[in-house]
Amino acid sequence: MVFVALPALQRSQRDTQRRNDLSRVDTSLVQYQTNNQGTNGGFNLPAGPNYFDAATGHTTGRRSAAKEFVHRYMNSGVDESEINTFQDPDGTLYNLYISENLSSSKSFSTHVGAAKLQSTGEKSYTIASDFDDHIIYIIPGARCNGGSVTVDTVRHFAVLYRLEGAGTYCIDDQWKE
Question: What is this structure's pTM?
Fold first, then answer.
């Protein structure tokens, strides 16, 4: 009986750690907003669309904003020349996708690099990639609506991740205007 229940328990523990990691991303984005007031068009968030493939260190999109964010805010003070330490509890490095701002974009890009978003209605999106891609999605100008995001004010953001055991986890920013 233990052999049957153990994998589910381990999966649940890894998903709990992933939720904690997303809370850390949320806190780091608020810190980024504070440190970069008045830059990036006044939105104070890393510019998108941008995809950072952590395994190769390559970025896809307009800038290396996602890579810079991971190195400066998520690697716990590790020197930028050091290897990436921001990783999933299963040992795989997290990839990061920063979309363009949902509330101010006229034509929202739904695919950059391996990151894919799927429309669930007018200005509403959810993750279309698999858990195995280990992609954390940062959607500026959005708020959580269950396992998807919908348009919100330009300064707000949502962070999404596909969990191993139970769907998509979404966390809103804590920024209050």
Answer: 0.88
